[in-house]
Amino acid sequence: MVDWFGYMGKILEVDLTSSRVRVRDLKEEDADMFIGGIGLATKLIFDEMDPRVEPFSPDNVLIFMTGPLTGTMVQCSGRYVVAAKSPLTMAWGEAHASGFWGVELKRAGFDGIIIKGKSSNPVYLYVHDGEVEIRDASRYWGLTTVETDLRIKEELGDKAVRVAAIGPAGEKLARYAIIASDITPDGPRVAGRTGMGAVMGSKNLKAIAVKGSGQVKVKEPERLRSNINRLLPYILSYPTTQIYSIYGTAGEVEEFYEYGDMPIKNFTVGKWDNVYNISGRAFREKGLVKAHRACWACPIHCWKYVEVNNVKGRGPEYETIASLGSMLMIDDPEYLIKANDLCNKYGIDTISTGVTIAWAMESFEKGLLTKDDTGGLELKWGDKETVLKLIEMIGRREGFGKLLGEGCRMASRAIGRGTEKYCMHVKGTEMPMHDPRAFKGMGLQYATSNRGADHLQGLTFRIEQGERITDLKIYERYDRVSYMGKGRIVATMETWHEVLESLVICKFISIPPLHLAGMYTLVTGRRKTLQDLLTAGRRIFTLKRMFNVINGISRR
């Protein structure tokens, strides 16, 4: 029997069709070759299903997975990953979330959960200290993510339970539905991209509640603590850390705008100084930010608790401010808080929501969409009331919102008439809020990322801003508008980020790669060099690419 450190050594398998539950042992070979997190999830998906299955088929396998660092004292190690075949890309799908849910899953005794089949009626899982119950969720079907969280905690009689849930959009299979976790009292963390919430909804799985009293064992806790304490001043002095601690990711609105990186009016406009009205600084100056919040073991506390009118909870991040703000020519912070809140409650990805609405607005402006298509709605840039109405329609899958819930690629193909030209996507995933014309490496990253347009699968723009990572042999400053040298840095950063999502650790924490490799060894007792981890990262990336090739994605 393996004496695991860092890992719990157990994976829960739930077949919703048969209501069969079993506990599987984590294989040492899998941990060695695929680390954990997204790496292990990728390997298990290949083991458990045919990549050619339909995304909403019961045969699509949905995996929640933590990493060996999750729940340890390592800074910002509270994340988890979700993977399945995506209904948005019709190929590889994954999403990541922060907070405390992943930590609680490990405390309950499991590294991950493999979910198969489809329940005949709505259910939720209650995982607690090595046990799992499949409970009826019929009375929660149709509720928002917030209502679901509160009602499940009330049923279980425990406010400390951590809940991951879908909203009405996931139930109704909106192709970019999210999974929200740690929803109350302060607002959710979300596994947001590629429609993992829709896959969950297709299985009639409303939520997963977790509670545990166990601990994650660390092989050399004192040496690990010493390393963490030694690195803390470096982390706190890092420029991005300082910005995020004060403003959150919204603190980068002004800088990205000045780079020409922040998309405006569906990527068609380069200058719009109204963006200063929706910067992190503007949110603070208007008194909308009431408190700072942090995830597990995080010294940064990057997300902000906001209050305005009847809305309380997590404030909008940079991606949301751009996708539902500058992309639609709206510069009202209070509207952005409301729009963000609606997306989170209904359970839809703010990036895909904004990009899809922007596609509709530009198509309407050019006469390619009409009121006959929109159910009588006139789509105008800057019309925040109509945008809020569209978000609710998408969340409920009603009227024109049903089409928008398909994502802009499928929606534009359904409409035709040349509207496809105005849908900003790669592989079906709506583009995030970084214009590849400002950072040429990001264009290559979007093209090669396995889940489609993805700013997080490499964060190449950080290198193009001047960041150097000597441990990864990135020594020089790159011209951000040149194509030269971008192939190597994109490949290097994509590989490294597979490692980060397998360990699993937040990408906002600036721990040098060599130090992180050392921390892995101190946590697990398994000696791996940085090169060993990078080799695993490339293996993981390649396996995802194989999944996409099987599903018809080629160089073209």
Describe the secondary structure blueprint for this structure.
Elements: E1 10-15, E2 20-25, H1 28-34, H2 37-48, E3 62-65, E4 80-85, E5 92-97, H3 101-107, E6 112-116, E7 123-128, E8 131-136, H4 145-156, E9 162-165, H5 168-171, E10 179-181, E11 189-191, H6 196-202, E12 205-211, H7 221-237, H8 239-247, H9 253-259, H10 280-285, E13 289-293, E14 303-308, E15 311-314, H11 318-323, H12 333-346, H13 350-365, H14 371-374, H15 384-396, H16 400-404, H17 408-415, E16 425-426, E17 429-430, H18 440-448, H19 460-464, H20 486-503, H21 513-524, H22 530-550
Parallel strand pairs: 1-6, 7-12
Antiparallel strand pairs: 1-2, 3-4, 3-6, 4-5, 7-8, 9-10, 9-12, 10-11, 13-14, 14-15, 16-17
Describe the structure.
- The chain is of the alpha+beta class and 556 residues long.
- The protein has 22 helices and 17 strands.
- It has helices at residues 28-34, 37-48, 101-107, 145-156, 168-171, 196-202, 221-237, 239-247, 253-259, 280-285, 318-323, 333-346, 350-365, 371-374, 384-396, 400-404, 408-415, 440-448, 460-464, 486-503, 513-524, 530-550; strands at residues 10-15, 20-25, 62-65, 80-85, 92-97, 112-116, 123-128, 131-136, 162-165, 179-181, 189-191, 205-211, 289-293, 303-308, 311-314, 425-426, 429-430.
- Strand 4 (80-85) and strand 5 (92-97) form a beta hairpin.
- Helix 1 packs across helix 2 (37-48), helix 2 crosses helix 20 and helix 20 packs across helix 22 (530-550).
- It is globular, with a radius of gyration of 22 Å.
- The model has no long low-confidence stretch (mean pLDDT 97).
